[in-house]
Specification:
Layout (H helix, E strand, L loop, with lengths): L1 E10 L6 H19 L2 E4 L8 E10 L2 H16 L5 E9 L1
Antiparallel strand pairs: 1-3, 1-4, 2-3
Length: about 90
């Protein structure tokens, strides 16, 4: 069994408050969960209202399949017009 994990940092230029940020991030988390069936959560950028760090994990038995799915997921995140992906870190466990 393999676990592929992403840590993705995003910049949300249109967020003018923590409420704006939460609305955007929670909406995207729900979309990603429904579309890709992965574990996803906002990580430690709680007080910064124009930045978010998102952790994503996918489990499987084929590394190529997981890599393809995570690349599709990254493309989906990158296509979101309300934010800009600024950093991505992939790790295997």
């Amino acid at each position: 069994m393999l676990v592929g994990t992403f840590v993705v940092q995003v910049h949300i230029p249109g967020a003018t408050s923590l409420k704006d940020k939460r609305r955007i991030v929670k909406g995207m988390i729900a979309k990603v969960q429904n579309r890709f069936n992965v574990s996803i959560v906002e990580l430690n950028s709680g007080d910064l209202w124009q930045r978010a760090t998102i952790g994503i994990a996918m489990v499987g038995d084929n590394q190529d399949h997981i890599e393809r799915q995570l690349q599709l997921l990254l493309n989906f995140l990158d296509a979101e017009p309300r934010w800009e992906v600024t950093q991505v870190h992939l790790d295997w466990n």
